[in-house]
Structure formats: structure tokens, C-alpha cells
Batch of 2 targets.
Target 1
Amino acid sequence: MKRQNIRTLSLVVITLTYLIIGAAVFDHFESTNEAHINDKLKKNISRFKLKYKMNDTEFNRLWNKMLDKKPYSAGNQWKFVGSLYFCTVVVTLIGYGHSTPRTLSGKIFCIFYTLFGIPIFLIMFQSVGERLNSFIIFSLTRLKKRMRFKNPKVGMFELITVEGCFSMTIIIIASYIFMHNEGWTYFDAIYYCFITLTTIGFGDYVPLQQNNFLSNNLAYASFTILFILIGLTTLASSMNLLVLRLATINAEEQVQERMEQAEAKRNAVHLEGDVISGNSRLFAQPEQPEQFDTISVCSCACMDYKLFHKKRIKSRKLESGARRMETKEPKYFTMPAIFQHKQSPVKRIFNRKTNNNNNNKHMSFVSHNDIELKYTLADNSRSIMDNNQKRNSI
């Protein structure tokens, strides 16, 4: 439990530190450029106002009209192709913000559409990602068997590497197509692909927003929608493998910790009266004069070693005799195993008479003295077994 608390606290500290480092780096790179652009924009606005003799109210009205016109510069955004592109961006959690519903009914439908659409698409991405992982594992296993690898099994690292390469291939090819159609630089196209597939969706680079692509270039519009769906599937699959690997490590550590706790609990030593015990077994028993003259509760070092050694040898002999007798498992009280091979004189005479008189099966006969001897030996064997069990528990 302490290890899990330490891990959680460490993750919180690492996350906050990561955020602070990112904020410092972006402050260093972007703040100066932002101030420069802001000053330049203010100067251009002042010149525009002086040139056309406009006050602040008129200029703000013109500015808002220009912002409202921006989504419609790409043509019809809400025809079927444009609506399909909007739905794809919404349910995949990208949300460029290039176009938004303006009517009340459209806003209400957008709420319920995303409420049910996002879970459906997340489940679809997970299912398709699992099938993709199974296909990659099957292909790599067949390839390893053909190349005669010693271990044809596919590891987690190999699977993540293959899916990562597949995702990078999609980004490289799609970036070239976006660069060719949108007029972006190749680095800007790669930046757009990464921001899109990670579902960040800043909206600073949005395809299909010029030259009326949504209506005139259906092939390019279809490619953009397929790029979002396929790219998200592959990237989400590889990210899912990383998360599962981390979760597996965490689960293994939890199981190991529980096993250690259970082992420590089993091996715990505690006192019951004046007897030390552990694992529900007694390490020492109270003093029993009929077995030992001297006995120690804490350790055997205080005992007379010679006496202990002699009694231990004697107990081993008695234990071996008891084991031999247990293997026979007689139905009635009989002689111990060491005496069974030797017949008593009465039994010999009785066997001779029965063999001479008739050829029937051998019948056993036991005299009164033999029965008393058998019962005494059985009682002795029981006492020997009880003493051995007590001695083994010490």
C-alpha cells in the first residue's frame, strides 16, 4: 500500500513538473514573437482607421463581419460532404472549430449526437485496434517461423514498434498529399497530421477550407476523412498497448506486494501464553516430564545435547516401526509387522492339524494370550505415534 501511494504521489509530481517545464519553454519561444505580432497588428489597425476615417465602433463591426465570413470562404460547409466532415471531426474529439452549428435545433442535435457518438467511436477504435494487433501478431509469427527464429512469439516491444512504424508511414504519406493540395510546407503538414491524430485539434491548420474542395474535389475530401479514421485507429492502438503495458506492470507489482504480505503473515511469530508460535504451528511446547526431563521454550541450546540426541534416535526407531505397521492397514487388531512373519507355536500346531484333516482354505486362530498381546502392542504403537507427532511439532 505504501508503494502504491509513493507511485501515485510521484506521478502527480512528475505531471506538474512536466506542465511547468512546458510552460517555461513556450514562454521563452512564443512570448516575444506574440508581442511583436501584436504591436504590428495594432499599427496596421491604426493606419486602416486613419485611411478610411473610421472610429472604433465601426471598425469592430467590420471586424466581426469578417470573422463571421471566414467559415464560408471554403464554400458550402453544411451540404452532405461538409456535414460528414463535421461529424467526423466531432465524434473523434478533434474539434477544429472551423464551422459550428448556428441554429437552436442544430445545437441541440449536436449535443445528443456527440453524447451517443463518442462512446460508439471509442469502442470501434478499440475493437479495430485489437483486430489490427492480432493481424500484426499473426504476420510476425509466420515471418519468424519462415526465417527460422528460435522464439517465434511476438513480444510487446515488437508489436509497439511495428504499429509505431505503421503510424509514422501514414503521417509521412498524408503530409505529402496535404502539402500538395493545401499549399502548406512539409513541416506544417506533419505538424497538422500529428495534432489531428492526437485529437488536439487547434484549428490553426484545417484542410478542405479553400478552393471549394468540399464540393468540387470529392476524392480529396474522402481521403481526408479516411486519414482521420485510419490514423486514429493505428495511433490509438499503439497508445493502448503502452497503457496496457504500464497497467500490467502496476498489476504485477500489486500481486507481488500481496504475496509478500501473505508470506509475512504466514511466517509471523507471536506468543500464545508462554509458547512461541508461527504459521499456526508451535515452535515449543510446555514442559512434559513423561517425554523429556529438561526442555526449553526459547531454544534447544539450553537442553542437554546428549539426552536430546539419544531420545531423538530412539524416537526415529519408534517412528519407523509405526510407519511399517501403518502400511499394512489391518481390518482387525493383529500382531505388529515385525512379528507377523513368525507364527506362534499354537498357530503352527493348529495349521498342521487343519492341513492334515482337510484341504480347505487356511483359517487363522488366535489364542487368548495372543489377543491380549496384540491389544497391548496396539496400545503401545498408538502412544508411540502420539509422541512422534508431538515431537515433530517442536
Target 2
Amino acid sequence: KDWLIHGRKSSKNTSKRKRQQLHHKRTQDNRAKAAGKIVDREVVRGHIGQVHALAISSDGKFVASGGEDRTIIIWNASSGEYVDRFKGHRDGVSCLTFRRGTHQLYSGSLDRTVKIWDVDEMAYVDTLFGHQSEVMGIDATSRERCVTSGRDRTVRFWKIPEESQLVFRGGQVGSMDTVTLLNDNMFATGSDDGTIAVWAATRKKPLSVVSSQSSEAPLPWVSSVGALRNTDLLASGGSEGFVRLWKVDSNTSKLSLIGKVDAKGIVNGIAFGGRGRYLVIAVGQEHRLGRWTRVPEAKNGIMLVRLDLDEDKVRGIDEDGDDDDDNGDDGGDNFLVPASREKVQQPVADSHDNESDSDHGSGIKKIKGKGKVV
């Protein structure tokens, strides 16, 4: 009798678990259908939910994407095909970057950790602990080092082979939401209190701090910074309707404003492309991680602005912050090829519209046009 009762209970429990699993699967399928991810009953391999971060390997072979579904997906950059998926973060993936010259991937997450992945082997490598709040920004050097910024108001410079980290505080009272490397030993951060700071790995305090946002901006927030690696050129953007271009002084590391580019909306990402010939700006109506403010007249998309660099004025900065005689030549790469040397088949900006000449020793001869959102 006891055996029969026990058997009946087990059968009921098993059926209940099966119903729960089926309900869970149907819920996931319904969410996928609502997101347009199911076609002819086949689930397209992609993210469920928002995509928060993208990174491309330096050889252009792989693209990595991370999102609120806590996963990282590796894509073939040429074909756009799904390659593999990494799982391990306990919260959304907020930032990604590849180590230069390799297929080693670094990911930062809202779970306060940084993880290392080997894309060649499609394997997990290690987890870096230290941040006391969400990791917001990340960048990597050509060596086994990376720099991260977070809402705990710190920047951390990770020396992975040595299993050590350098912690930087001060200069910014708000969350450090974005970080970019100037070279292997210098980096810049942007904060939600509207400031930009330039740092060196050899000093605990910032080399220089400047307020980049105007008081008229609806949200005094530097949401993105980007640098032309191994040069003195830095860009920053927020919610004020344009991207600022800065020159980093090679002796004092102070920032000098050298130009502006109209960018209506929230600037969620900045990168220099084509070896400095283009400025790539990700703009949107809202911030990529939240709905704190909205610019309804803005378009969600990518804006490309063509730059005309002057090699005689754009200078490289070595790891000590001094002038680099080889103009930032790192391993034979020339980062300072002017746009005029290569014919652009489809210019992304009208060269006769709002041309801005600059003669501040910045190395930018012209900012050609306002750019177009694509």
C-alpha cells in the first residue's frame, strides 16, 4: 500500500515537472516569436532581448555580440552566420572587446565580473573579480592587459599573466561609464557627471580632468569616448547633440577642444575607422542600457563622418606620455593615413556641406560634412 501511494505521488510529481517544462518552453517560444526570432518553427540563433555590446576582431574575422540574455554570440563577420555561443555571466553583458592581434575576447557584465574567452578554441578561459558594481566599459591592449570602468567609480587596469589589478579612483564623482585606451599605458574615461579624465597606468590620480558637457544639456553625461590608438586624438559624446574632438597634449596630457561634429541623439558608441579616415558614431533616441532620457527627433543608427588628417600635425604618444617619433607606428601599422590618399567610392558626407577647418595643431585638416545616419 505504501509502495502504491509512493508510486502514485512520484507519477504525479513527474507529470507536474513535465507540464512546467513544457510551459517554460512555450513561454520562451512565444517571446522568441514576439521578437521575430522564429521562422517556420525554426528558432533563429540570436539574442533574445536587447543587444548591449559589439566587438570585432582586429583581423575582421569574428564579430562578438552581448546582450541582456547574459550570453555572448560569435558571428562570422564575412557571412554573418552564427558560429557559437558563450554562457557564464549571471547578468546582462554590457561591454566587449577583442585583444588586438588575437582572437582573445574580454567581456564585462552587470554581474560585476570580467570574463576572458578564447574564440579560436571556443572556450572559457578565466574570470576577473574586483569591481563592486556593474562593469560599464572595457578596452584591451595588444598585450594580455585590459582596462575596465564601472559604476563603483573606479577604473581597473588588469595585468592578466601577473594575476594583478591596479585600481584608480578620483577625478570623477559619478559612475565611470566608458573607457578607451590611448596607447598600451594611457587611457581616458567618461563619466555620468559630465567629465573626461586622462590616466596613466603608472599614476594613481588622473593626469588631467575636463568637463565636456554644457549646462544646457538635458543630461550632463559622457556616455562614450573613443581614441585613435597611439595618437593624440580623442573623441567624446553624450546627450548634447554633438561629438567633441580633443587633442591630448603630449607633455601635460591636458585636453584641448579642436572641433565638434553634429550628432543629434544619445551617443552610445564612438570609434575611429579606416585608420583615422572616418569617425563612426552610434546614435539613438535613448541610452543603450536604460530609458533615463529620450531624444524623440533623433534616429537610431550609425553615423559616419569623413575626416581629413594631417600627418604633420597628428602626433603619436608613447607610453610615458611623450611625443613618439614614429608617429604612433606600432608593429609596422601606419595609423595616420590621410583620407586624400585613398579614393572613397561612396562618401558618407557631402564634402561641400559645413566643412570645418581646424588649425589647432590637431592634425585634422577638415571635418567633411555633418555625416549621415545609416
